[in-house]
Amino acid sequence: MKRKRYWASGLLAAFIILSIGIYYIQAASSHLPQFRLAALEGNEAEAEGLVLSAYYNHDALGEQAEITASGTRYESERPFLDRVGDLEGWMGSVQPIGRLTLQYPRFMRGRAFAEYLDDEAWVIRAELEPEYGVDLLKPSYRFRIDMLDKKTGKSRSFRADLPESKFDSKSIIDLQRFGTTIKAAVQYEVIGMDGRRRESEIRIYDIDLNEEKITGSAKVDFGTSAGDGREIRIFRVFEYHWTKPSDSLALEVSVMDVSDLESKDGTSGGIANQNATAVRQPVMAEHRLVIYHYGTGEVKQTSLPLSLPDASQNLFRTGPVVLWTRSDGQALDLKGYRASDAALAFEKKLTARVLGAESIGQTAIGPDRLYLALTASGTPEVAAVDPADGHLAFRGAVTIDGVDENEKKRLLSSIGVSSISVRS
Amino acid sequence: MNRYLKLVVMELHRFWKIYAALMLLTFLSQFGGLFLTLRSYLTEVKGRMYAESLYDYAAYAEKHGPESFYTMTSRMEPWFTAPVLLCIAALLFYVFMIWYRDWFGKNPFVYRMLMLPTSRMNLYWAKLTAIMVFVLGLVGWQLVLFPLHMALYRSMLPAELAVTQSVESFIHHHSVFQTLIPQTFTEFVLYYGAGLMTVTVLFTSVLIERSYRFKGIAGGLVYAAASLFAMLAPQLVNDGIGFELYPWETFLLLVVIGAVLLALSLGISRYLLIRKITV
Questions:
Q1: Do A196 and A184 share a domain, yes or no?
Q2: Is residue A12 situated within a structural domain?
Q3: Mean pLDDT of chain A
């Protein structure tokens, strides 16, 4: 009887080891297909750093994957410790912050969501800190500046009071250093209960690093302001290296006609008007590119094409060029503006037919290229455009090695690219 | 070692009927649920084929697409996961009962156990081993059941309506099983290591209660709560005081806290078993 019990216990132990062991050995030895991004035209090095976030559909399920020139990394196949230790991936959505976190983990701890400047000598961080007095609803604000000396690794911090203002929303959108002065661009907005921007402006503050206080400020004047039936929307033009030094600030300014959204009695929006505002959308009346030069305080601007209902449009800055793109999936309109004077440098139209593709998908900006995701013969492809003149500099396609043509076709048709991005 | 093994075998034997019942229940619920779901799906398919004048399964699959094993189990989710959750609840309950049945059974068995001419810690190790064997046995059992379920799926559905799916990809996408059977062996060791630590904390709470009776109830609860608080500390540091830890720091801290709690629980249990619990 007792011997039987020992046998049963031994069998249970063997069963556990075998079932779990075989499962993990099998899981470790089965690998998903290795797709890679290969060059069709142009230099293969252009594909380096390019990441296609994709879904590989197999077994009626989707596997999250990242396809690069060197292969495919599936989320489900990543070793646990690799996932835990991936600081850059952790902050992946904010590209330069991931890199700075890797380089300066102590300085970056807990402060990813701030404005940064990464120049040759310093990493400078600026945040607006609220300070609550008697009226808890109306705090006063001050700049908190943290500076890391790259050479010595030492950091210093100081605070400088921000002047009182009528604006309820404030955020730093750019930071530059000129000698011992920091220039901080602050976006101010008065936002109504209905979410509409009653007033918007950009103000540049000079902060002296020796005196540790604000020594001057200037409003960026782009010659228009919010008013009856008008709303101003301002966005900093997206830049790949947005933490790197620049002598100018590029802004996208849209004047929205919201008169249709206002109720007849002159009041606007609010809860009473919620249903109406949900149906009607503001109409873009003006669209501008505004360049503010930090050195001279000069403002250069130019009109941009208005947005179209069935097309997505983007503005990117890459060094001396600001690119405007508009795509409806079949054609991409591209205009390049000089960042020095906001003048049009070139314009181009890239159609899916000319590119030999079925459709044009997302666009993404890299350090010196504009990338387009394409689908050609059911296969994900990528095109890289030179921002200086709009010429096609590279064409690549997702491929897989070591399988026959039919299997290759089947596997490639199982991939769906959701976005493209560029890693430094 | 010999004494320890004898005690382990004894502990396994004491629970085998309930354990076998749990395994059987899991099999019957999952297999039966899948069988009924597949049958009802086939009836549904035939009804739609008739209504839409589709003459074969290929035409149906062309129009409506095949249904994967994953989708089938989603249709019968309670049949599939309820027995698993019941097994977890039963084993959690038995973490306490494995001690209390010695005291409150028909013949207070604990007196004999504590008088055995061996270290009292062997008793502790045997109970801990038994719990872990029960847990891992059920995990292994589930891993054996999946291929059987998939075989049933393939045998009942016409080839046109079936989708080949691997056990690994099914587990990775299932909300419950991806936690019970983690993606990598490293995670498996970490998850079940954390489970082992939790069992030692609960054992310590039971022994504190057995040593100090009424006062011990509060003591046991405080110890369990303090352990939980310690394990949540890295998250509290992140959220509460705004000192953001990087993921690998949180991970390392959790491993260290877990190891300290394990050692502490073993130390306290040893002290209580040898010095405080008297026959």
A1: yes
A2: no
A3: 88
